[in-house]
Amino acid sequence: MNLLRRHPVAIALVFLLLVTAIHPLSPLVDAITGSAPGDADFDRPTLYVMFAPLSNVLDGLTFFSLARAQWALLVWVVGLAAWGALWRGPVSVPVTTRRRIARALLGPGIVILLAAAAVLLPRPVPRLVTTSGAGTVIDYHAHTSASHDGRPGWTLARFAAWHARQGFDASYVTDHNVIYDGSLPPPPGTPISLLPGVEWSVYRQHVVAIGPVDPIARDSFGQSGARMMRIFSTIERQGALGIASLPEYWRNYRDELGTFVVAGVDGFEIVNCSPKGLAFPARGRRQVVELAAGHNLLVVGASDNHGWGQATCVWNLSRPGTQGFQNNRVLARPMALLQGDGPAWAAAVTQPWFVLRSLSWSERASWLTWVFMILLYRVPPRREGQKAGIGILARSIFRRPRSSKAEPASPDKTPT
Question: What mean pLDDT is reported for the chain?
Answer without folding.
Answer: 90
